Amino acid sequence: MKFQVEKIEAMIYTVRGQRVMLDSDLAKLYGVETKRLNEQVKRNLDRFPLDFMFKLTPEEFEVLKSQIATSKTGSGGKQKQPLVFTENGVAMLSGVLNSKQAIQVNIAIMRTFTKLRSFLSMESCLKEEVGKLKDGTNQLFKIVFERLDNLEDQITPKLPGNRKKIGLKPDRNH
């Protein structure tokens, strides 16, 4: 079974500065009920420290619901805060859910996280390069304007202080 990276990417959210996936999205990918996935996790809680998995606060859940347009309480949607899994937590799920589909899903998810990490790294490098270009450009403009000032000084003739200008005087009567 082949999983689309774009589909998995759409299921990755940022919460508390970490990229995470919801228990319900993972359950869909694994082909199990969310309830069953969470049961397996609870049976193996020692495998899921807080940096692998955590429960959203009510506030975080409300923000997330508004981002992903989940149904509000009482209209058939999620009623309680979901568990979310970090990249390490998703990797740990492969040891808890040991079906062929779970293994294939985990491989696809790990590739997606790796792809996202490489994009973030590339973005960081590009920001650094743009910063260097900006600094270099500012320095280049400074040099160009200094040279233009020097050139202007060389072209404009300097008149001795006691010498009168030659030319027509403006008529002040008209």
Rg to the nearest angstrom? 32 Å
- SSE order: HEEHHEHEHH
Low-confidence stretches: 71-76
Number of strands: 4
Helix content estimate: 55-70%
Relative strand content: 5-15%
Shape: rod-shaped
CATH architecture of the domain at 5-123: Roll
What fold name stands as the CATH topology of the domain at 5-123? Mlu1-box Binding Protein, DNA-binding Domain
Q: Numbering strands along the chain, what is their spatial order in the largest sheet?
A: 1-2-4-3
> How confident overall, as mean pLDDT?
78
| CATH C-level class of the domain at 5-123 | Alpha Beta
Which oligomeric form is depicted? Answer: single chain
Structural class, by secondary structure, is alpha+beta
Distance between the termini: 94 Å
Biggest sheet features: 4 strands, antiparallel
In short:
With 174 residues, the protein is of the alpha+beta class. The protein has helices at residues 5-9, 23-30, 34-43, 58-68, 87-96, 100-155, and strands spanning 12-15, 18-22, 53-55, 83-86.
Care to describe what's here?
The radius of gyration is 32 Å and the shape is rod-shaped. Helices cover 57% and strands 9% of the residues. The protein is built from six helices and four strands; from the N terminus they run H-E-E-H-H-E-H-E-H-H. With 174 residues, the protein is α+β, with helices and mostly antiparallel strands. Helix 2 packs across helix 3 (34-43) and helix 5 packs antiparallel against helix 6. It has a domain at 5-123: Mlu1-box Binding Protein, DNA-binding Domain. The relative contact order is 0.12. The model is unreliable at 71-76 (pLDDT under 50).
